[in-house]
Specification:
Catalyzes the specific phosphorylation of arginine residues in proteins. GO terms for molecular function: ATP binding; creatine kinase activity; protein arginine kinase activity. This protein is of the alpha+beta class. It folds into 3 domains: 164 residues, Creatine Kinase, Chain A, domain 2 (2-Layer Sandwich), CATH 3.30.590; 79 residues, no CATH class; 90 residues, no CATH class. The chain is 48% helix and 16% strand. It has an 8-stranded antiparallel β-sheet. The chain has a two-stranded antiparallel ribbon with strand order 6-7.
Length: 353
């Protein structure tokens, strides 16, 4: 299973949701932070507890299959190269924080990668459920299904007053982080994104870049998630986040129409220039590629540029990341210039199709 996961540019949950005619919403994610009762938190670095948690995770494969019918695998991070672990980070299957923590660290992954459980990251388990488009409820229902299957076998650390106990106080309570990944080129292009982000943060939500906390919004891709986990139910958290995201989607659509109304020729010039650069360039950096791929997807959504298929943007965002690009090329030894050349070649080939 690991070879399939490493080799495939797109997980099923990154495929375009046909319910949406545009490509503003990329995916939805639910994450539960969970710790087992009676074992020290991961940050204590207690070898006995770490080994015990890792052993428990290896025994979860059959109960998880019984819960949702999917095949599950346990992937030991110690058996992967640093390069392979970096690919998993680029594919949003594990956090950068887990990449360098090796002893007793692993991933439990479903056959379609819609469920990924990080073992011994900040907490004993980080249960992640992903779904395409704006599908928070679908992702939540799946996460609850998996969460209950695990808790039935191994009780969690739970307090009647505080809720689920976690290594970081900001996760205590529900332990739930719900997030939606959005492509917001028009809000960025118009300069309205700064004020919008400020408003979202004031409402108690976080706005992060392509790879979560501390990352940039490469390709105009943003992740919106809740911060509050105490004094609010899981259902209310999802309901409120949905309202926030629906408001952002409406603002992005208004910004797109405003760009067309105010100066359509200027917008067309920007979008066609990006298309022309990627169609003919012989070297393209990762950052430039994402910027111009974002422009092209905006042009496709607005009917200005030729349609290039529902999943091409998400696919090229994945392929053009530095580590996956080396994997795609079949060589871990590409220099920066060789990567830029190969990235340009891959994009040219996709556009020519």
């Amino acid at each position: 299973m690991i070879d399939t996961i490493l080799d495939s540019p797109l997980s099923q949950w990154l495929r375009h949701d046909s319910k949406e005619s545009d490509h503003i919403v990329i995916s939805s994610r639910i994450r539960f932070a969970r710790n087992f009762d009676g074992l020290l938190f991961t940050n204590r670095n207690d070898q006995v507890s770490l080994e015990k948690v890792n052993a428990i995770s290896r025994g979860l494969l059959q109960p998880l299959k019984d819960a949702d019918g999917h095949q599950y695998s346990n992937i030991s991070l110690e058996q992967l190269s640093q390069y392979e672990r970096a690919v998993l980070v680029e594919k949003h299957l594990m956090s950068p924080a887990l990449e360098e923590k090796l002893p007793y660290r692993s991933l439990v992954v479903s056959d379609d990668a819609s469920i990924v459980i990080m073992v011994n990251e900040e907490d004993h388990l980080r249960i992640q459920s992903m779904a395409p488009g704006l599908s928070l409820q679908q992702a939540y229902d799946h996460a609850v299904q998996i969460d209950k299957a695990i808790e039935a076998k191994h009780p969690y650390a739970f307090d009647e007053r505080f809720g689920y106990l976690t290594a970081c106080p900001t996760n205590v309570g529900t332990g739930l982080r719900a997030s939606v990944m959005l492509h917001l080129p028009a809000l960025t292009m118009s300069g309205r994104i700064t004020r919008l982000v400020r408003s979202i943060v004031q409402l108690g939500y976080s706005v992060r870049g392509l790879y979560g906390e501390g990352s940039d919004a490469l390709g105009n891709i943003y992740q919106i998630s809740n911060q509050r986990t105490m004094g609010i139910s899981e259902e209310s958290t999802i309901e409120q986040l949905l309202k926030i995201v629906e408001g952002i989607i409406a603002e992005e659509r208004k910004s797109r129409q405003a760009l067309i109304h105010n100066d359509k020729e200027s917008l067309e010039d920007v979008l066609w220039r990006s298309y022309g650069v990627l169609q003919y360039a012989r070297r393209v950096s990762g950052k430039e590629a994402l910027t111009k791929l974002s422009d092209i997807q905006l042009g496709v959504d607005l009917g200005i540029l030729p349609d290039w298929g529902n999943d091409t943007f998400n696919e090229l965002v994945a392929i053009t990341r530095p580590n996956f690009l080396c994997k795609y090329a079949g060589s871990e030894e590409l220099s920066d210039l060789e990567r830029d050349s190969y990235r340009a070649k891959v994009i040219r080939q996709k556009l020519s199709q």
